[in-house]
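Translate sequence into structure tokens.
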Amino acid sequence: MPLDVSCIPSAFRRTHTLRTTWAMSDICSAHYLFEDGGTNASGNVAGLVSAAFPAYARILHPAYRRVSEATSAAPASFASVRWTTVAKHSGAIAHPAMEWEAISAGHRDPETLVWDVPPSTGRLPSPEQMVLAGVLEDHTSTPERCWFAFAEARGLTVPPDYPRIITAMGPMIVFCGAVLDAGRTFQYESPNLWWPEDRRWCVASDIDLMATYVGGSLACIEDLLASPSLEAMPAKPDQKITIDADTVNPPPPQP
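Result follows.
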């Protein structure tokens, strides 16, 4: 039976030769994520993006506040809210390993609440994703060849014979395109794991996390941290990524 390509966006079809099996030259660049600890279930940053990089960044997914209500003529509009802003208003301490539940817990007064919609889980919003791709494009020698892996656990509907890689996030569907294709979606989802062919950096948005992690060169991470459009903070390879990673702010009350 021929491969059904109807579910694969045209942006990927134009940059990827579709077939039911991958050539070794296509999939070998994913192996480094396994060889040095990347994509395992260790519960730390290196477990997501590999321990091979000189530096790491944690990009916090923004929350949102409603700016205007929906009308018959237009939908409601929202503005992004940074975690540091939420922490300031809740009395929490902002720091690189802060967790959303810890900084937002106990601050639900609608009169003073600075956010209405919490950060997205498992996906960096498209505006921030494109800013990230723009920075990373300058830190690879292969900007036209980048791998994008989508976690099947997000509920993707994909032909069973389509090639997959296995990671801590489970089976993942992989596509190849340019770095700037990072803003493209597959069945409304953004990539959970992506890296260029020259392996200069790696990006991971775990399906259960409200932050995206990047491993790369010192210069690459410095540029990410300096971007005014991203709420990026330095991270360490052994830094915990679980909900109890915030050891500064009190844990949220248990129901």
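Note: Residues 1-29 have pLDDT under 50 and may be disordered.
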